[in-house]
Amino acid sequence: MRIQVLRLTAALLILAGVVLAQKKYTGPRPPKPDVPFLVHAGKLVETESSTATESQGKDGTIYTVSGATSQARTPTAEPIMIFQSDKINPDRLSLYKMEVKGGSRSLVIPPAGKRAKKDAVRALFLMVTPLAPSLFKVEVNEVIGDGEYCLSPEGSNQVFCFTTY
């Protein structure tokens, strides 16, 4: 019993030391809440905010954003974003690759329960890390190729678009 108490005390002291040793976030902060900003060498680049138009197609729900490309661009294959949360929960963001067709960007989400095609759209892996109260780092946690991408809060047609090149 005494050994367990000593081990628990030691573990708590180590944990307290780790918490105290953590650095306070000193990087750039987004000028707007609820908009992801791409991190570029200490600068923040605002993602393109838009509302996707929703329609139904034979393969599922189609979400379309006007314009063939986003003005927010990054050369990074695993982009990092800083996000100041006010109304949007960053854990509810999903990232999708969009296709460019007819001067617009779109993606098709198959209906629930329907078997998706082999090359169907899927949400890409994100990792959300708290930096400070209401401030988060959102990292794409897999290598993504060149193209058009959008982050979208779950259950919303709001999108935040960017291009990788």
Strand and helix layout:
Elements: H1 2-21, E1 37-40, E2 43-46, E3 48-51, E4 53-57, E5 60-66, E6 73-74, E7 80-84, E8 93-101, E9 104-109, E10 126-132, E11 135-140, E12 147-153, E13 158-164
Parallel strand pairs: 6-13
Antiparallel strand pairs: 1-2, 1-7, 3-13, 4-5, 5-9, 7-11, 8-9, 8-12, 10-11, 12-13
What does this structure look like?
The protein is mostly beta strands. The protein is 12% helix and 44% strand. The chain has one helix and 13 strands. Strands 3, 4, 5, 6, 8, 9, 12 and 13 form an eight-stranded mixed sheet that branches. A hairpin with a 2-residue loop joins strand 1 (37-40) and strand 2. It is globular and about 60 Å long. The termini are far apart. The mean pLDDT is 88.
Structure characteristics:
single chain; 165 residues; 12% helix
β-strand percent reads 35-45%
* Alpha-carbon distance between the two ends: 60 Å
Return the string of H and E elements: HEEEEEEEEEEEEE
**How would you state the average pLDDT, rounded?**
88
Count of discrete alpha- or pi-helical segments spanning 4 or more residues: 1
In short:
By secondary structure, the chain is mostly beta strands. The chain contains one helix and 13 strands; from the N terminus they run H-E-E-E-E-E-E-E-E-E-E-E-E-E.
